[in-house]
Amino acid sequence: MSKQARHWEKTRGLLMVTLAIWFVFSIGIFLFGAEMESVTGPFGYPLTYWFTCQGSLGIFVILIFWFANKQEKIDEEFGFSEKGDD
Amino acid sequence: MIKGKFIDNLPRVYGIYTGGFLAFIIIMAIGEQMGMTSKAIGICFVAFTVAIYAIIGYLSRTAQADAYYVAGRQVPTVFNGMATAADWMSGASFVAMAGGIYFKGYGYMALLVGWTGGYVLVASLLAPYLRKFGCYTVPDFIGTRYGGNLARLMAVIVLTVASFTYVTAQINATGTIASVALDIPFKYAVYIGLISILLCSMLGGMRGVTWTQVAQYIVLIIAYLLPVFWISNKMGAGFFPHFMLADEVARIAELESQFGLGTVKNSAADLANVPKGLAGITKAHSAVNATPWAFISLALAMMMGTASLPHVMMRYFTTPSVKAARKSVGWSLFFIFLLYSSAPMLATLSKLSLIDPTLTTGIIGKSIAEVQAIDWYQNWNQANLMFVSDFNGNGTLELNEFFMGGKAVVLATPEIAGLPYVISGLVAAGGMAAAMSTADGLILAIANALSHDLYYKIIDPKAETAKRLVVARVLLVVIGFAGATIAAMEIQGILGSVIWAFDFAMSGLFFPLVLGVWWKRANREGAIAGMALGLISGTAYLIWVRNGGSGFLGITQLTFGIFGSAVSLVSMVVVSLMTSAPTAATQRMVDEVRVPSGRSIIGKQ
Questions:
Q1: Domain count for chain A
Q2: Cα(A71)–Cα(B507) distance, rounded to whole angstroms?
């Protein structure tokens, strides 16, 4: 397999993991909104309420930075990272 | 004071700017103590901030295509994040969101999840690849990836429909705020708002818009967070509201059952007396009040719409590298998060200060006559944003007898909580900044697509740069005036049309964009079918439901994009597979897009 094909395979793998995490916190947990309601979440908020106003949102921010770093590592591994800095 | 290149000095420039703005707020506060009228403070806030944006817009003037279309591709990651956050957070986010949460609770908060989760899709599926492509506009990507003028034209059409729906709402919002702050009729205020918007973008294009958006973000975030923290501290709810309002949320739930929320209903005859656009609290504040599918479908539509809206995508064309584009999405969402996570807190504080009888600001349980004598009630009642009526004739105000406009939660809460008027002036300036920055991004997206893709690429490919930029600026003004004219007619509310814009964009553009990168087999015929059938079927569904159609699968007029994009996906895949595979050259191009290093596909034009 060519270098480029292997790079793309790894990139696609990372995409799948990223989208899976995204799916859980944007869709998955809200299937159980009513069940989570009686659970007390961080800072004492009802858990469902906490996810909608802080939890999921914060997880998305962290997820994007995590994804960007992982992708940079993959690019470096195959020598595809850009020269120069941002 | 400032030496060397502008880009290297950005932190210092915006640091001085932020300090200057804070000093201005303090001067206004002193002015208020010395007897400045509230009208004068309002005028000062709006006039001062708009003047600053206009100066930035003038200083950013340019005659180069690269600077005009993509700000010279040298906007640093963090600053592009701020600019995107301002571009993204519209008058609706700033003025209407906390109000929506206040009235509808959990079901409405699907928008918070949707409008943030979409950025994960932007970062992972699209932004870095479109940046590598090196295009000026989103239709530029579609036109080059799939080839042919028809695909490009279809993309221009979808972009225009979605962005134009969105922009009228933003111009409407600037008009509303300008008319309140400057105390002039709405139909003139709309044009004042428009001229302020054009001052930012006309001379400098994307470069001007970028640097004004950063300035606007700073104003809007200060204007949103300062009152939230202040009110929370004043009420003794906690010095850092985001982590400390659990007791308040629980207290609201307790009061809701005490006041008989959901059991005491108003009759239709009573409701007929309530002025149009005002609503009472009818839904629980924090309890789950929507079915899983209602919540998820709204969030999903907003997420896919986020990843299809061209005015957001084109912000990532301005970063220096692919790597920077990815990081920049993270920073954008961080800056958006600061405001979005505060909106539910503002709604909580606002609601509690109004309904808790043990607080001095609480009005529920007081006598109707007493409430009608309160200063702020009279002001906002006059502005048609507040209303009380003694339906059951017992002389006291009940929860179901108090009505408010959605905008009032953000605009009136500082006053209700007893903050000085200078805060209300600040909030007006923040709302103006939010609406202006989004309107600028949208008008520029439409004008750039029409000037670059329709005029330069399709009509006159030999046109010189100077002529292209003249066309771009003329279009900017024309589109702005068209938007303002429609906004002046006040056809629909701010929030409804914003949500529609997301649905239009996802119906036509989501799958053609994503599959353009991730599916090599996608070809021109498929993309054209996907864009055309997606947009047409989504629009048809909207019209059907608006005219009394029952809809299916619980898809409403707010989520019609789910139907449109499903049609788009199926037709794009089927038509692509029925027609021949893309040429070897196109497939090579897709391979190159997938690698961050190396030259961009389109290169300097």
A1: 1
A2: 29
pLDDT, tens digit (0-9, with 9 covering 90-100), for B501-526:
899 999 999 999 999 999 988 898 99
**What span, in angstroms and rounded, lies between the C-alpha atoms of B70 and B604?**
11
A16 in contact with B at a CB cutoff of 8 Å? no
* CB pair distance less than 8 Å for A60 and B117: yes
Q: Which of B40-54, B328-342, B529-543 has the lowest mean pLDDT?
A: B40-54
Considering the domain boundaries, does residue B448 fall inside one?
Answer: yes
Q: Do B120 and A65 touch (CB under 8 A)?
A: no
In this structure, is the dihedral angle defined by the CA atoms of residues B420, B425, B428 and B429, taken in order, positive or negative?
A: negative
Count CA within 13 A, CB hemisphere, residue B68: 23
Q: Among candidates B433, B559, B503, which has minimal Cα distance to B88?
A: B433
**Does B564 map to a domain?**
no
Chain A positions in Cβ-Cβ contact with residue B286 (cut-off 8 Å): 45-46, 49
| A25: in domain | no
| C-alpha span between B21 and B217 (Å, rounded) | 12
In-domain check, residue B555: no
B12-43: per-residue pLDDT in tens? 888 898 999 999 999 998 998 888 888 888 88
Of all residues in chain A, the one with the smallest CA distance to B249 is: A45
Is residue A16 one of the residues assigned to a domain? no
Q: How many helices (H) and strands (E) does chain A have?
A: 4, 0
In percent, the amount of chain B with pLDDT more than 70 equals 98
Nearest-CA neighbor of B225 among B364, B397, B22, B396? B22
B360 occurs within a structural domain: no
Model confidence at B471, pLDDT cuts 50, 70, 90, reads confident
Convert the pLDDT of each residue in A20-73 to its tens digit: 999 999 998 888 878 787 888 788 888 888 889 899 999 999 999 999 999 989
Per-residue confidence band for B1, with pLDDT thresholds at 50, 70 and 90: very low
ipTM, two decimals: 0.94
In sequence order, which residues have a C-beta less than 8 Å from that of residue A21 and are 6 or more positions away?
Answer: A59, A63
Band of residue B491 on the pLDDT scale cut at 50, 70, 90 = low
Query: Searching chain A, which residue's CA lies closest to the CA of residue B125?
Result: A15
pTM of the full predicted structure? 0.91
Judged by CB atoms within 8 Å, which residues 24-43 of A form the interface with B? Answer: 25-27, 30-34, 37, 43
Sign of the CA dihedral running B468, B474, B475, B476: positive
User: What is the strand order of the sheet B386-388 is part of?
Assistant: B278-279, B402-405, B386-388
**Residue B12: how many CB atoms within 10 A of its CB?**
12
CATH code assigned at B233? 1.20.1730.10
Domain presence at residue A36:
yes
Q: Which residues of B touch A27 (CB under 8 A)?
A: 296, 299-300
Give the mean pLDDT of B223-237.
87
User: Structural domain of residue B295, as residue ranges?
Assistant: 7-261+278-350+419-499
Asked whether the beta carbons of B117 and A56 are under 8 A apart, the reply is: yes
* Number of domains within chain B: 1
Range of the domain at A50: 31-78
SS3 B522: coil
Residue B11's CB is within 10 A of a number of other CB atoms, namely 11
| Inside any domain, residue A22 | no
**Residue B301 three-state SS:** helix
